[in-house]
Amino acid sequence: MTVHTGRHFLQIPGPTNVPDRVLRAMDMPTLDHRGPEFAELGFAVLAAMQRVFRTRQPVIIYPSSGTGAWEAAMVNTLSPGDKVLMCETGQFAVLWRGIAEKFKLDVDFIPGDWRHGADLAEVERRLVADKQHKIKAVCVVHNETSTGCVTPPLEARKLLDRVKHPALLMVDTISGLGSLVYEHDAWGIDVSVAGSQKGLMLPPGLGFNAVSEKALAVARANQGMRSYWDWQEVIAFNKAGTFPYTPACNLLMGLREAVKMLEEEGLENVFARHKRHSAATRAAIKAWGLETQCVDPNAHSPALTGTRLPDGHDADNFRKIVLEKFDMSLGTGLNKVKGKVFRIGHIGHFNDLMLMGTLAGVEMGLDLAKVPHRGGGVLAAMEVLKGHDAAQAPEAAVA
Amino acid sequence: MTVHTGRHFLQIPGPTNVPDRVLRAMDMPTLDHRGPEFAELGFAVLAAMQRVFRTRQPVIIYPSSGTGAWEAAMVNTLSPGDKVLMCETGQFAVLWRGIAEKFKLDVDFIPGDWRHGADLAEVERRLVADKQHKIKAVCVVHNETSTGCVTPPLEARKLLDRVKHPALLMVDTISGLGSLVYEHDAWGIDVSVAGSQKGLMLPPGLGFNAVSEKALAVARANQGMRSYWDWQEVIAFNKAGTFPYTPACNLLMGLREAVKMLEEEGLENVFARHKRHSAATRAAIKAWGLETQCVDPNAHSPALTGTRLPDGHDADNFRKIVLEKFDMSLGTGLNKVKGKVFRIGHIGHFNDLMLMGTLAGVEMGLDLAKVPHRGGGVLAAMEVLKGHDAAQAPEAAVA
Amino acid sequence: MTVHTGRHFLQIPGPTNVPDRVLRAMDMPTLDHRGPEFAELGFAVLAAMQRVFRTRQPVIIYPSSGTGAWEAAMVNTLSPGDKVLMCETGQFAVLWRGIAEKFKLDVDFIPGDWRHGADLAEVERRLVADKQHKIKAVCVVHNETSTGCVTPPLEARKLLDRVKHPALLMVDTISGLGSLVYEHDAWGIDVSVAGSQKGLMLPPGLGFNAVSEKALAVARANQGMRSYWDWQEVIAFNKAGTFPYTPACNLLMGLREAVKMLEEEGLENVFARHKRHSAATRAAIKAWGLETQCVDPNAHSPALTGTRLPDGHDADNFRKIVLEKFDMSLGTGLNKVKGKVFRIGHIGHFNDLMLMGTLAGVEMGLDLAKVPHRGGGVLAAMEVLKGHDAAQAPEAAVA
Amino acid sequence: MTVHTGRHFLQIPGPTNVPDRVLRAMDMPTLDHRGPEFAELGFAVLAAMQRVFRTRQPVIIYPSSGTGAWEAAMVNTLSPGDKVLMCETGQFAVLWRGIAEKFKLDVDFIPGDWRHGADLAEVERRLVADKQHKIKAVCVVHNETSTGCVTPPLEARKLLDRVKHPALLMVDTISGLGSLVYEHDAWGIDVSVAGSQKGLMLPPGLGFNAVSEKALAVARANQGMRSYWDWQEVIAFNKAGTFPYTPACNLLMGLREAVKMLEEEGLENVFARHKRHSAATRAAIKAWGLETQCVDPNAHSPALTGTRLPDGHDADNFRKIVLEKFDMSLGTGLNKVKGKVFRIGHIGHFNDLMLMGTLAGVEMGLDLAKVPHRGGGVLAAMEVLKGHDAAQAPEAAVA
Fold first, then answer.
1. Any signal peptide, and if so, which residues (chains A, B, C, D) (predicted)?
2. CB pairs < 8 Å spanning B and D
């Protein structure tokens, strides 16, 4: 086996590269989760996450994966038999439906081709048709990690308002938060779902819910069974900076540092950086003569780019070659795009030269894997980066 | 405010002191949870945890607190209305009942005085009386972290066998595993529940279930709602060294190192060390003229010692003085022993001189807090430690 | 072999326990020693060391051990044949003489019994006798690490002034700086010599010189051969925040953090803490019926305590037992006190409970090594610590 | 000021990128430099460095920069007035001469144009002319870090043998060791000089000498003044795994891990990797239409590539732009090539994609700095890397 040297290129769309500062902040003695030093940490990260979610409402932090935070969103607000409207944007939407079904919700799943954001027009039609307001929640995936397509949550809010439907708006922004503009309060989101290992630049192990007043009221009235995920108990303990059960102290220590880094860079700059890298990546893909998985020019993800290989070429074989020859992990195609798509993560703790190393690895890998393509992708990406201006990208990236 | 120097003494019974080797093992770049390097890690920690639990059955690892692993034990095996037998050994037994009730189980809660292990004689009586086998599970806390009393799981198994009752035996060994002898298979445990931040010497953030074949069969037949905690999906993914949702990679990297350290020391030696430190601590308490919370000489915990202050003296005030003057965190008294009990953790990554620093801090703190006591505790503990032989302790510690 | 668990007790008088914050600060990517980020670091540590030495004069930082900084002090200011006055306070004074002789200096070595500070009365006599001012430098060891005896540099300055002798005053404060009051400028020191691995709480690898204007003038005039140690070249580069050869970047990163910690605690508090720990240690030794190596009540070191074993008992055998049984490193007796003395370091990143663990280890070790002694040392130390007042110590410690 | 995100590209030819494993190995509690655990470390690193230098002779490890190791080489073997033969290969040869002159050696400095290795033909002529064997040492720089030109030490050995001249052969392989083939014994080197912060992948702070039996004999006979650098005392202590003064413990802990990594990769593979990256870099430079500083096709350094900018373009301005825009540090031109040359380090812990990020940064920087150049450098480098074969490089790299 080849022994690799130098840094591994972790270019999957999460877990993402964790900054040294964050790893070092976690690499400190753990602490008494009931003592005054912890309370300081608790208050700090709760406030920090409110700033990141852009909310004055409570943020709940779970020792869990992002999947757990999805489950939390549902079990707090919904009961068996409740109808929910979901959109098939990709694998993570499919997984969300799976959870909903396990909790015996009645899922109305709007089909999609995995190459666009959510079909909001169809959402609107179904809401309009739902005169009796049986639909209790509309669930959308902000940044579909399996495809690289963005659905604008604000548009979903607008249509709910337009049709005056009282359903909760629940948004999975697991790979969106910290990479794409996100406004929990201003966009009228009821439940936001996030995880630590994407734009927040942490290892996996924390899940988040941001919750509106309306969602909280629904939760208070909800008799459904829950304990670990119960918002109310967490919120009650959080008032003292503590948690109802032992929190993942060291990940929280890392979270404090990670948000500090995001704020030192400035969230606006963070978002602009992701858009620029996304534009450069698409420029490369276009130059290679390949297709992005996302076909809606307004829906390209700033965080990752799903890339299709020509028919007859296995994306996983390509990924294997890139891993072995160049020590770079690229994201696999999931479920119905397995073998057809690979994903380039350009999310989190990342910069221009890391992107260029990444794209050079892809370009060389295409050659070694004998995938038909034109050269020039790397050059095209450099043209975008030199401009230091996303406007020069072939297509505008989504906010 | 005093700025403390030197190392904080984290002498709560969990989170415990994390070894440098474990913190450093976690302080490495995170990795592709779907790649070959992760699979190696996945297989390694699953096998390691089987060795620690002493089982050939599956171990499930959750990104969660230990509380989550309790919830997992219940939602996989029990359904609303199911009767379970529990024993009030202390606060963690009370919490377990709370979870059970939130999942609408019918809890038969055998009262206890928080100063003994579980009342197994009463358990036996109730099982005998349960001719129709309505009781679906007997739940005991192996090492009650709120009191320092041990309940021997093997005795519970023996009585279940004796009365030929088919109930599942579920054991919370959150603060037992890695500190006290534990034999998941040999003791016939159906579900073992553990967490990372105690004897496993990790930061909090991982929960564990070890499950018998019988428990798995029950789970397969159980129609109850669950997703995140569902054993079967995890076990299915584990066959490839992966997990159904993003695992807490860096905590797993730490887990691999922590088990390596336990095995380098030898689990037998680890257990003997905890017993010796427990004996030395009790010798000190006896010399001070104070009482241990545990009053059963056969039930003293090797992992922590609950200590009572005389009436009229507030244990939390004492703890505050010790924290401020000596930078040592001691465990608070929980729930009904609040203010009456403080807890000394001597669990995990610990040694004789750390214990002596701890006990000296307690002895000086008693003086500064004007708690009536005799001197000589520290000397008595040294006598035990010099012997390097737990047999010299005033009372034998429990296996 | 026993596998030790818990933290090693590193109670030698240097290298001392390095704080996690300092280790983590060093555990960051190294940097371009000619770039702007390094210059910031360079300026920061140079200014920080001026504050620690209490000087407005240049501080020179070498990638070297403290021994190198001694050599630097000599080769910059002295030439073969120059007469220097030194005092045999212990092994480090002997080593200093050794270096001087290797550089062909003419050493006038005032004998000592290794149980007192320097014989300043004799220094004064010899200076008075030196009518022709052949003596070019008086060299004293501030805190003699091999014995635990302090020589007050200010007294040396006063006597030089009193007898109006122009010799340079050179002070080895390797184990003094950061633990004992030190005033390079106010005390009129010409060359101060220090190292990183003592009160500065860093790993070994940095040596320091602080230099007076007078010393600099002497150096400028000195034709002696030198390159690596040459002050002038370093000082010239330091004006730009850089160094003439590659500096030990990561140790400098640690130094910045270590001084930050010292200043957060407050240097006055740091000094008081060391005195209090020294007093508690002596109280223990007195209670055990043992002797401190230092017999001058005004000369006890706040940083370490040399302790004598009764005749017929081998201090290194005792140390071996303590290391094996209790995982504690104590300082060995050096040179003429080999086997007779062991040294307890209570210097650097340290606190009350660490000291109590240390002293308990010594007390238990005395017992296991069958060294005749009374009990009660640990108790006596606790009495001092509870007072939180060095005034209660049996003998006043030296500033 | 721009806040940079992602990893800094440290592409100077030293200090080089330190692997996480090495930083973590250093990030552990420091230890008693006189205890048994240290002795194990001491023996381990001494043996490891013998394997890296390819010698059975002693290796001396100093807490110092590489410059200190140069000084050590001279003061151990030479005395004031001794004649030495040196070759002006670049700035580090100039510095070496500077040290020699400070120690009053009589330097015969063979001029060079900084674009070739040492003029060995001229060395041979001068040795032949030195009938009386006044020349005591021939000093060559193996890999001239200021230019990227290699001088083959074996050729120097051959010519010394050919002309039967007894001068010592002293080789500065500071930026060669661990990156270029090096054979201290087989090539008949008398003194090898190295440092930690280049191919050894450590932070700066350690200097090394490997010494032949002949050099040791010369040193034993040498009456010159020295103490810190004295080989004999170090070698004597090393027999017990210790050092005469406090060693830089944590850097040694890192060294043990770094050599482990080099040996896991295999030194042969390490050398081949450096050659391949050098070839790819030269391919890029050629494509850009720029010149390498080294003009001898047989002398190109595998470790770094000096690159010239066209007249009228300031290399430091270019470097500044690259640092600000792309967070990459490139090496500055030193001394007589200041402003004319920048240096690309491809040494140490490095891989193909890091190189591609580096070269993309250079190519974009050339554009932003308006340096006239052709495109295609990045593409040309990819062609070399895809081949995974240095043979495809435009010119063969030196062993």
1. none
2. 12
